[in-house]
Amino acid sequence: MATLRDVAARAGVSASAVSYILRGDTRFQTETVERVRAAARELGYTANLSARILKAGRNGVIGVAVYALEAAQPMRLAAAITREAGERGLRVIVQETANSREGELQALERTTSQFCDGLIFSPAKVSAEEIKSHIGTKPMVWCEDFADEPLFDAVVTPSFEGARDAVRHLIAVGCRRIGILGIGAHEDARNKAVSDADGNSAFRAQRLRGALAALDEAGIEFEPDMAIACPWDFESGREAAHRLAARRTDDRLPVDGLFCLNDALAIGTARGFTDCGVRVPSDVAIIGFDGILEAAYTSPSISTVDIDYDDYARKALDLLVSRIERPSETTAPRRLVANYRLVQRESTAR
Amino acid sequence: MATLRDVAARAGVSASAVSYILRGDTRFQTETVERVRAAARELGYTANLSARILKAGRNGVIGVAVYALEAAQPMRLAAAITREAGERGLRVIVQETANSREGELQALERTTSQFCDGLIFSPAKVSAEEIKSHIGTKPMVWCEDFADEPLFDAVVTPSFEGARDAVRHLIAVGCRRIGILGIGAHEDARNKAVSDADGNSAFRAQRLRGALAALDEAGIEFEPDMAIACPWDFESGREAAHRLAARRTDDRLPVDGLFCLNDALAIGTARGFTDCGVRVPSDVAIIGFDGILEAAYTSPSISTVDIDYDDYARKALDLLVSRIERPSETTAPRRLVANYRLVQRESTAR
DNA sequence: TTGTATGCGTTATCAG
DNA sequence: CTGATAACGCATACAA
Asked: What's a Gene Ontology MF term here (chains A, B) (predicted)?
């Protein structure tokens, strides 16, 4: 690979001149500028980003750390960030944290952060204080931080509002026995006291709270055992549906409406009900959360709270870029909320 | 962030001693080793990977460049590579090329390659010669290179064999009028002459060839207009189904079996048929290709050729790591084929 | 067994 | 306007 010096030699100038000129410094003679540009083009020169960040602490690369590469929601966000960053002349690299403490620390202090000007990160196992001590001075935007006194800039999904609207929608189409699928194992819906023992799962809690608020305002009594804890994947949804179907009495399910805390759960649940001869939406209406693409192509298609990830990405990059460009500024952490809209599909059409 | 020198100062030794000791050199006194390790731990020292690759050309990071972050198949591969690399003590960063020449060149000569010991890449628009000239000496494994004289090590999916088995399966369940969905715009199924004008889409061509081979061996005449060109996404599948349904005569579709060149197409197609009152599998059987998770949770669930991406990842890393570890060795490019198995689900159950 | 010197490719400072 | 030169953090040959 051609280096700065190779270009300098070919153009007959110094390496520093090449560095300046290629980065757009205007104080050189047009003739010199031309010669250098030509030499760079001919050699196929590209600046080495590792050297650049080592020296300057900046290289135009943004890191994104996600909990899984095989989950639609985080990848939708990563894709939106990549698109939006591209329009701003930034590049993006993505790393998986595998939902593990180990993986999160790796992303924080090694791969992603060391290659990048800043980091967009949604930690699940690592606390804010730990992050503070591991990330150094590198700017970070925290996805889904609902802490009362945030330590970092954050963008959050409207989990409370979205969940509330989802359950309102179930009520509006006639559901009265409403279940909630996918709460954390440590959340006690009975007392509406939601703990956070399962890592930084504050956004789960938010969704539960929003759902309960909608029931409350409609004067619907909530049966605590209608809130089911499980992980957020297809198979967990399917299994939950099987268990619910097994609880039928006189061919009647314990629920007539089900709010799934994410879309993967909703898709799995719909499939599980189909396995058992339960009809969606006539026997039970289902609504999910996220707006992943697949939810529009299942049968029945799944109603959902569609998060506007382009908006999310834009806000995350606004926050991050402002910190990168003004590192000295120490304004208080800000929190922005992404847009969303309720999408009604077949799973609640009745 | 603490540097080598910080650790050295704290431990009262030279920077080079720290470098040696932390990477496991054994020729130091146990007492010194202990002191250095302790100092590193106390300061939370982590080696800077940018500096390391700049100096040594090695940092234990593997780059993966995929055409889309929102597509299940490439992310399944990226996730498998991340898992497998983790077990070998390597880290992975992922970059999106957005299926564009620009994006592919970026990955090649900037982000991914400059941060990594090597690259796993599936180019669509850039030719092998271009890659050769842009990547320098960095090892690369090419995914899905079917060139006659490969320039790089490659891992490929068994596109020919998998497609052949898929169509054999359709035939086995009684299909006789078999359509193929998702061929490239420039492929002429009529002449079985498959061009490659649409970038490096050789694997599309392989799948088509495999399908035609299965028809051939069963003595089934192939109607050229039963091979439909379209992109590989949900919506294209849905639209294709609508168009096929519009061609019904006497309530009979022009096809009774459909091989979709990937699973997203298959899911979209199944949904599209449902829209039009076409029943799957009784009116038309559908089989996809890839084995993405979602295909097991739709209704009907979709039969598919399930590629073993763990095997794929293992083979890709074997190739890449061997090149990284022995850069001088100039053995000819190798090509490995991933395992696969046919998964029968509801969409072909008849 | 340990330390010193050098360089990877870049940017920034300073002198001319 | 341009060019030396010194870092950035690390690894390594070589000296001690």
From this structure: transcription cis-regulatory region binding
- What is the C-alpha end-to-end distance of chain B, expressed in Å? 63
Lookup: tokens for A72: 């639609």
Query: Which of B53, B64, B100, B111 is the best residue to mutate to test the A interface, defined by the most A CB atoms within 10 Å of its own CB?
Result: B111
Q: Which of B54, B91, B297 sits opposite A106 (nearest CB)?
A: B91
Q: For residue B289, what are its two tokens?
A: 């290709």
* Start-end of H helices in B232-341: 234-246, 263-275, 309-325
State the amino acid at position A62 in one-letter form. I
Please, what are the domains in chain B? 1-57 (1.10.260.40), 159-307+343-348 (3.40.50.2300)
Strand partners, B258: B179, B286
Q: Residue A199 pLDDT more than 70?
A: no
Tokens of B240: 């294709």
CA dist B284 and B253 (Å) reads 8
Find the radius of gyration of the CA atoms of chain B: 25
Mark the ranges of chain B whose per-residue pLDDT is less than 50.
Answer: 191-198
Q: Is the CB of A15 under 7 A from strand D?
A: yes
Q: Is the pTM of this model over 0.85?
A: yes
Banded model confidence at residue A137, pLDDT cuts 50, 70, 90: confident
Length of chain A equals: 350
R_g (Cα) of chain A, nearest Å: 25
Is residue A23's beta carbon less than 7 angstroms from any atom in nucleic acid strand D? no
Which residues of chain B between 27 and 86 are close to nucleic strand D, CB under 7 A?
45-48, 51-52, 54-56
HEC letters along A249-271? ECCECCCCEEEECCHHHHHHHHH
Looking at the predicted structure, is the pLDDT value of residue A191 above 80? Answer: no
Distance A28 CA to D1 C1' (A): 6
CB within 8 Å: B271 and A298 = yes
**Chain A to chain B Cβ contacts (< 8 Å):** 146
Sheet holding A340-343, edge to edge: A227-229, A178-183, A257-260, A285-290, A303-307, A340-343
Asked if residues A271 and B299 have their Cβ atoms less than 8 Å apart, the reply is yes
The predicted pLDDT at position B186 comes to 64
Length of chain B: 350
Instruction: Check residues A42 and B190 and name the one with the higher pLDDT.
Output: A42
B110 to A46: CB separation less than 8 angstroms, yes or no: yes
**Nearest by CB: B82 against A69, A110, A114:** A69
* A129 at interface of B, judged by CB pairs closer than 8 A: no
Please tell me the distance from the alpha carbon of residue B340 to that of residue B207, in angstroms, as a whole number.
14
What pLDDT score was predicted for residue B326? Answer: 87
Residue holding tokens 């009774």? B256
